Backbone:
């Protein structure tokens, strides 16, 4: 199993929780942490934006990235949501086994 961490930003905690619950219930992710109070400065449509957001830290399997990405795009209010994956190089064997069990 190739485990990954997926970062997804959202405009607020309620939207992030709604997305997180859906992807965990649908077994596209084993866990989603929601980190409040991040500040995002980014370029959008020719302007520099400065917004408060929340960050979702999602743990899943690499082969589930595409269906996860599609589902997040369906549920997300942003036109172009941040959905990026990073490999998990090492981890607790117990945790990674659990992750495999709870995701498809």
Residues:
């Amino acid at each position: 199993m190739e485990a990954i961490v997926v970062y997804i930003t959202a405009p607020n905690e309620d939207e992030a929780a709604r997305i997180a619950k859906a992807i965990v219930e649908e077994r596209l992710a084993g866990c989603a942490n929601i980190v409040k109070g991040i500040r995002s400065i980014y370029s959008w449509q020719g302007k520099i934006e400065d917004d408060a957001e929340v960050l979702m830290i999602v743990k899943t399997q690499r082969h589930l990235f595409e269906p996860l990405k599609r589902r997040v795009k369906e549920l997300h209010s942003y036109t172009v949501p941040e959905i990026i994956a990073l490999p998990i190089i090492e981890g607790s064997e117990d945790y990674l086994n659990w992750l495999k069990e709870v995701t498809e």
